[in-house]
Write a structure and sequence with these properties.
Elements lengths: L13 E2 L4 H11 L3 E5 L6 E6 H7 L15 H4 L13 H11 L3 E6 L2 E7 H5 L22 E2 L5 H11 L3 E6 L2 E7 H14 L2 H7 L5 H4 L13 H11 L3 E6 L2 E7 H14 L4
Parallel strand pairs: 1-2, 6-7
Antiparallel strand pairs: 2-3, 4-5, 7-8, 9-10
Helix pairs in contact: 2-7, 4-11
Length: 273
Amino acid sequence: MNIEDVMSEGIITIRKDQTISDALKLMEKHKISRLPAISSKDDELVGIITEKDIATKIASSKYEDVPLSHMRVSTIMTRDVITAKPGDSTISVLKTMIEKHIGGIPIIKDGTIIGMVTKTDFLKNVESEPYTTTPIKDIMTPRVVTVNPDDRLVHARRLMIDKEIDRLVVVDSGLIMGIITAKDMAKTLIDFKKRVPEKYQENQIRNLFVQEVMSQTIETTTKDTSIADVANIMVEKEFSGIPISENNKIQGIVSKTDILKFVYDHNRKRGNY
């Protein structure tokens, strides 16, 4: 199977000279987490921007003195974009996504973006064995990176950067209280930069706490749920990760990447390249 059989068409793009706020609005409107950035002159692909880029970069020391109104997509986008061709095999593209730790790859034909493949696109194809018979406990990450509701947001942001993750489970006395994602953080930091004068931002950002930003409505699953069922939840609810719990106590976490690593290993063992 080639990647053109899996990719999504009708790709939403953003021009590199548009603002970071524009990018986040587009992501929210279309329920996507990344946008290919194109040049203003010839629509050439020049970069890609993600929710995680916004969450981790706009409050960094490098950009703390840059007014939000001056912060363009080109300021923080990734310029060296990994792409694929429509005739590339699905397994080779999946391998690239896993090895390069990226969540989406633009598909290019004759210099033009004709589609995009994301982790979600691959999750739509796990409706058979061994995915329907393998419990999620076999692939979950048992050591979960967590924060407390009273932790400062800058601490949560630093954890996301250091651990290279897009979500943190919020726990208090061992019980799950909520979750904070890159999207939550990006929206909060953009709002903060809009309403707080520049000269006060460096000090006041330390007054933002996890409990003010986290999502309290959180869906969890159990260790015995099948990989296929968890994948379906992720696709339907647009989750990038789901905590595994028992009696509301954290047991582990599973991400789209965890599932796709299993998919890749299964296909590699069967010689599907």
